[in-house]
Amino acid sequence: MCATCGCGPTSHQHHDDSHDHHHASHQNNGKKNIIDVEQDILLENNLLAQRNRGYFEGKNILAINLVSSPGSGKTSLLERTLTDLKAELNFAVIEGDQQTANDADRIHATGTKVTQINTGKGCHLDAHMVLHAVQGMKLSNDSILFIENVGNLVCPAMFDLGEKERAVVISVTEGEDKPLKYPDMFHSSTLCIINKTDLLPYVKFNVEKAKEYARKVNPALEIIELSCTSGEGMQLWYDWLKSKVLTIA
Amino acid sequence: MHELSIVMSIVDLATAQAAKHEAIAIEEIELDIGCLTSIEMDSFEFAWKQGIKQTILENATRKINRIEGKARCSDCGTYFNMLQLYDSCPQCNSHLAEIISGKELKVKSLVLPD
After folding, report:
1. Minimum Cα–Cα distance from B18: chain A residue
2. Could you tell me the CA-to-CA distances from A89 to A85, A116, A247, B46 in Å, in that order?
3. Which distant-in-sequence residues (6+ apart) come within 8 Å of B31 by Cβ?
4. Which of A21, A229, B56, B93 is the most core-located residue (most Cβ within 10 A)?
């Protein structure tokens, strides 16, 4: 059993105690015993996400949930970012994958504190997994925490982890209509990174179309084009990161 | 297949409610699922069949209310039906809109045995 929140390996029911309302049960037609529940199915996740959010705010940690399809370059983007900025900013990383610690090994090689979450058959991270990952990390105050979600443009969209920013990464080797095909992820994100722009001469990807589609789904979405291979556009991303750190400082 | 996580959350929620009311079974469960949530109903159906096995919901009748997507244009104030998150305002074509309904995902009620 977990010492902090008391959860066993399979049961998470204890969390329900904190949000139990007094739902009146009443008799209907003298026959049925109807309970008006009116409870959000994601309430447990959302409460834990708010708990994470409070912890991050209290320690002035900028938590960024990185989401994308597999192979868009999330880990490569992190590797380069951590290497380039480690002298200026304090980072930590949570890696989410179904299996292996390969990504954590890559992050570890940059000298950054990292924890790997393996979701097994799970297709997304949830707030409960992040809560436990964070418990073992001894995160520093005034730092940036990247949470690299499982490569999946569908499932992670519904699960708040307690992050401040959600950055969706697409690459120019994918279709430019990704925002329309997977609108939930783009709708819930605050930043869209279009990666691998060094490959634009070799692929059919229309950057302007992709941006137009993304803004149809989410007019407030910020968009940065970059290549973590050539370095083009990386400064825009670094400036964005630093502006977010200043805001919360 | 985040639908399985959703089904498991419903099972947890129903189990807790049943325990609170000292019920050993649930006869009916009523759910609100908005059309703008990323719940794919075929996947949900599949996850439901697997997820409720040997739980308190195994023999429950399930009712699902699909809540239509409705939005209010932030530019001109028009109310309109939103089928997709990228639908624009039919009056002024703006994509800036506030979603009013369609994001619901909740357990509305349960029927317990007498």
Report:
1. A35
2. 6, 21, 14, 46
3. A41, B10, B62, B63, B64, B65, B106, B107, B108
4. B56
Q: Is A120 on the interface with B (CB under 8 A)?
A: no
Closest-CA residue of chain B to A37: B109
Q: Kindly state whether A35 is in contact with chain B, defined as any CB-CB distance less than 8 angstroms.
A: yes
Q: Which of A65, A91, A78, A85 is nearest to A143 (CA)?
A: A91
CA contacts within 13 A on the Cβ side of A51:
19
Fold annotation for B2-68+102-111? hypothetical protein PF0899 fold (3.30.2320)
pLDDT digits (tens, 9 = 90+) for A80-103: 999 999 999 999 999 999 999 999
Say how far apart CA A191 and CA A166 lie, in whole Å. Answer: 6
Q: Residue A41 and residue B9: Cβ atoms within 8 Å? A: yes
**What proportions of chain B, in percent to the nearest 5, are helix, strand and coil?**
25, 30, 45
Nearest residue on chain A to B33, alpha-carbon basis:
A41
Interface ipTM: 0.88
Q: How many domains would you assign to chain A?
A: 1
Query: What pLDDT, in 10s, does the model give residues A108-144?
Result: 999 999 999 999 888 999 999 999 999 989 999 999 9
Would residue A240 count as lying in a domain? yes
Q: What is the CATH number of the domain that holds A72?
A: 3.40.50.300
